[in-house]
Amino acid sequence: MSRRFLVLALVAGVATVALAVPGQALAKNRSAKPADTILTNARICTVNESQPWAKVVAIRGEKIVYVGSGSNTAWRRFVGPETDVVNVHGRLVLPGMVDSHTHPASVAMSSWHVIMPWTYDTTVMLEFVAQYAAEHPVSEVPFIYAEYYPSDLFDTNGPNKAMIDAYVSDRPVLLEDFSDHACWVNSQMLELMGVDKNLPDPVNPDDPAAVFVRDAEGNPTGWVLEGAWRYLADTMYAAIGWWPPANVTPELLYNFTSFLSSKGETAVWDAGGREATFASAAALEAQGKLNMNYYGSKRFYTVADLPENIAILRDWEAKYGSNHVHLDAMKFFLDGTNEFGTSAVLEPFIVGENDYGELRMSEDDLTTCMLMLNDEDLDLHIHLVGDRAFRVACNAVERARAELGEAWRIQVTLTHDELIDPADMPRVAELGIILNWTPHWSGGYFGTMSADWLGYERFDRMYQFNPIIASGGIVDYGSDVVSQYEAARADPFFGMQVGHTRVDPEYPMQPGPGTVPLTYMREPASACLSLEDLVEGYTLNGAIQLRMADQAGSIEVGKLANMALLNMDLFSVPDYEIQNVEPEAVIFEGKVVHGTLMLP
Asked: I want to staple 250 with a disulfide (CB 3.0 to 4.6 A). Which of 220, 255, 280, 408 is the partner?
């Protein structure tokens, strides 16, 4: 287990205290107050450097009161007439896990989307859409929203509206790209939104990457980047007299949060920022059905609109904040994606001339935003994928910290971080930045389209986090799922398998130039993450990002009793069976919220 546990806790401003072996205990005398539940004969991965492994854990109320080796009788001091002493027969126990970046609202609201067959054959795809349209008349389905087509299906010119028109032209049709940063629409949809050669791009000046791709004459081709269509969606909906579900409900949100809970997640960070989502989370808590800590954020676009969006976040916190619902961070998109050449890079793309991508905010303005957020005691979560965006974000943190000195308080998390210049990797630890990654992307999830823009030398340098971990940087993990289509990939054990092997069992990497055919691993093998680092990232490091490492993230005396009892030992199962690991019981704040401790 990593030797960074205590260091990481100190970075987060957390003071942890470990009592001496044979076990940690709140009570030192032989008449300790009885525990409610004691798990014995366990294999407990504590994620606590002072006591990495244990065999016994005792729980009283919401808290852990004893963690010990089991080689002595110290734990028996916590046994009373009402104590449930459970022999778990050597099963692995992990701390409750954290999904540090995901989109519950998008998952909840996507239930009406059409799921297409996964194929690289556009004829098969479009025939499926045509058949769906034939079976569902316009009166029943006035707008077809289907997902997904592979991100590397087309070259850098993208798809064309005429291809869909040949199959479905009686209603608007949108086919979503696998990255969720692009889509392909038909002529009917463009016309209903009023998109033609006379409509300027971007449709929202504060979101310059959101554009309708044009041909040489300025006509929209049908390829749409960064959700530009959403700014005109109401025009289309009004024209067809139909609107999709407008708000997240507690019931829709529960479908996803209960799934996360069943996989051992006891906290989540919502990167979406919808008021109805937080209202639904608060409603679930009131009903006793939330069973996790729910953290949220609000997106902003410019320095000018930051104060307004801070005020909105404050309003949401006042309405919905509670013991388990927290809104304490702002989110910003600094660049786009590598798959579509909308990232910000240090060396130009291999497509076009001297194209370095586009930053959505200057270093000066980003520094100003950090200073403003520090005054407000609000943390910052930055979407970025290109190495220039990463450097600019680090520079802004360095400048803001230098200006504020000891008054620097906020926590900056950089999410995705797909391409990082090696010279900038040590800065994560040096600047106290948190790096957030999505392990289930580590294999072939997005194909090789980014190589069309970056070239294979940079493509093979993507997704490199071991040097950052080795230098003491904090790396945590989230699922970043955005639809019901991929919701199952939010399973942290699935993420661990892909992050550890760099092989995606659902969407394996296709061989590229210079690779060995049929290996299907995303090279290089040296970028595979260790299981120890993955567990640490999903538990303690996630708790650090949420500023709750003094309460959760490890199995230690005094912390909340959040843990998962697993059916298999992920450290000993074959690498390609890690995804089959399942919690037999999930404990949140001392209560079993999934499964049972009544084991055979």
From this structure: 280
Whether residue 148 has a cis bond before it, omega within 30° of 0: yes
From the list 591, 598, 587, the residue with the least C-alpha distance to 265 is 587
- Mean pLDDT rounded to a whole number for the chain: 92
Residue-range domain boundaries for the chain: 1-96+553-600, 112-240, 312-320+328-552
**Residues 489-515 as b or e (16 or more Cβ within 10 Å = b):** bbbbbbbbbbbbbbbbeebbbeeeeeb
Closest CA to 339 of 331, 347, 351, 330: 351
Q: 542 near 534, Cβ under 8 Å?
A: no
Smallest CA-to-CA distance from 18 within 48, 43, 57 is with 48
What tens digit of pLDDT does each residue of 528-554 get? 999 999 999 999 999 999 999 999 999
Position 156: which residue type?
T
Please report, as a single letter, which amino acid is at residue 402: A
Class of the CATH domain delimited by 112-240: alpha beta
Residue 286's CB: how many other CB atoms inside 10 A? 12
What sections of 423-556 are H helices per DSSP?
427-430, 449-454, 456-459, 466-470, 492-501, 531-538, 540-545
For residues 422 and 276, what is the distance between their CA atoms, to the nearest angstrom?
41
> What pLDDT band is residue 206 in, cutting at 50, 70 and 90?
confident
Query: DSSP labels for 130-175?
Result: HHHHHHS-TTT-SSEEEEEE-TTSS-TT---HHHHHTT--SS-EEE
The total of other beta-carbon atoms located within 10 Å of residue 11's CB is 19
- Secondary-structure class of domain 312-320+328-552 per CATH: alpha beta
3-state secondary structure 10-72: HHCCCCCCCCCCCEEECCCCCCCCCCCEEEECCEEECCCCCCCEECEEEEECCEEEEEECCCC
User: Phi and psi for 344 in degrees, rounded to 5?
Assistant: -110, 120
- The answer for 479, left when phi > 0, alpha when psi is -120 to 50, beta otherwise, is alpha
What region does 445 belong to: left with phi over 0, alpha with psi -120 to 50, or beta? alpha
- Out of 261-270, 373-382, 409-418, 503-512, pick the least confident: 503-512
245 confidence band (pLDDT: 50, 70, 90): confident
415 sits in which H/E element: strand 412-416
Class of domain 1-96+553-600: mainly beta
Label residue 510 by pLDDT band (50, 70, 90): low
Question: Contact 339/306 with Cβ under 8 angstroms?
Answer: no
Per the CB < 8 A criterion, the answer to whether 359 and 392 are in contact is: yes
Cis peptide bond upstream of 220, omega within 30: no
- Distance of alpha carbon 191 from alpha carbon 200, whole angstroms: 15
- Amino acid at position 38, single letter: I
Contact between 248 and 277 (Cβ < 8 Å) = yes
Beta-bridged to residue 85, according to DSSP, are: 38
DSSP of 162-229: HHHHTT--SS-EEEEETTSSEEEE-HHHHHHHT-STTS-S-SSTT-TT-EEEE-TTS-EEEEEETTGG
Per-residue H/E/C for 441-468? HCCCCCCCHHHHHHCHHHHCCCCCCHHH
Yes or no: say if 376 and 397 are a contact pair by the CB < 8 Å rule.
Answer: no
Residue 287, both tokens: 């009903």
| Cβ atoms of 333 and 206 closer than 8 Å | no
